[in-house]
Amino acid sequence: MLRRFSPKKDTYLSFCTQLILPVRVYPRGRKKTRFPWAAFLLAGTWRNPYTIYMEEKAFSALISGRVQGVGFRHSAQNQARRLRLRGWVRNNAYGEVEVWAEGSQENLSRFLTWLRQGPDYSQVEEVRKTDQVPQGYGGFDIRA
User: Fold this and answer.
1) Please, where are the H alpha helices in the chain?
2) What is the total count of domains within the chain?
3) What is the CA radius of gyration of the chain?
4) Which of 68, 88, 112, 120 is deepest in the core (most CB within 10 A)?
5) Is 24 a catalytic residue?
6) Strand extents, DSSP E, 2-120
7) Active site includes 91?
8) Residues 134 and 81 in one domain
């Protein structure tokens, strides 16, 4: 049974999940549910529950060579989105391209292989990769 949202008794999260979970708000803001597998909803993590425990990796890379003015950033963004990676790509002042990517190890290695080759009209001379800790980006963006 769906009841009206009351700011004094409910949180917006519990109101939104009434159709999915029977949530009850207790006096000190504690929430209880009969479904422990749905704790990610109560914690505010709106990701797929089956991918939360997937092994996530991240790396940053500096790509040097003829990589600016040839569509490298847009091609890298398209390739990263095909591989379902998250992060960003941008040009820097020294004529290089910086990349931050995070996702599964398999897709990251495929993306790194693509970065070493690059799109048409580019000439990649060197790729310097550094392993990083994932930051939790939402998508793959082009930064200025």
Assistant:
1) 12-16, 39-42, 72-82, 105-117
2) 2
3) 21
4) 88
5) no
6) 24-25, 31-32, 57-66, 86-91, 97-103
7) yes
8) yes
Note whether 101 and 82 are within 8 A (CB). no
Is residue 120 located within the same domain as residue 94?
A: yes
pLDDT band, very low/low/confident/very high, at 55 (cuts 50, 70, 90): confident
Residue showing tokens 């910086």: 98
Phi, psi of 114 (to 5 degrees): -65, -40
Summarize pLDDT for 81-111 with one digit per residue, the tens: 999 999 999 999 999 999 999 999 999 999 9
State residue 21's pLDDT score: 46
> Of the listed 91, 110, 116, 128, which one is catalytic?
91
Per 3-state DSSP, the chain is made up of helix, strand and coil in percentages (nearest 5) of 25, 30, 45
123 & 71 share domain: yes
Point out the catalytic residue in the list 73, 82, 116, 128.
73
Structure tokens at 66: 């003829």
Q: How far apart are CA 30 and CA 112, in angstroms?
A: 45
Tokens 């990251």 correspond to 108
One-letter amino acid of 101: A
